[in-house]
Design goal:
The protein is mainly beta and 74 residues long. It has one helix at residues 51-59, and strands spanning 4-8, 11-18, 21-28, 33-37, 70-72. It has one helix and five strands, in the order E-E-E-E-H-E.
């Protein structure tokens, strides 16, 4: 599965499924690089369709007037 990229209230995060687990990454789109985030955990039981809502829930405090939502961009 290719990494899914989300704009999470202005911050780019990548999510990929590996060995039945969801892994989360900080993504730099201009550099094409990513680094693993260990403090952001997505329950392995969530479906791909549920990830956007989960990211909204766990990062909602980062919402602001300029970046009020989470969007899947890739």
């Amino acid at each position: 599965m290719k990494m899914m990229i989300y704009n999470v209230f202005g911050r780019h995060l990548g999510v990929e499924r590996k060995d039945e687990r969801w892994l989360v990454y900080r993504v730099d789109l201009t550099e094409g690089k990513s680094s693993r985030l260990y403090d952001a955990v997505i329950p392995d039981s969530l479906s791909e369709a549920e990830i956007l809502g989960w990211l909204e829930d766990i990062f909602h405090e980062a919402a602001n007037a300029i970046n009020p939502e989470v969007k899947k961009i890739h």
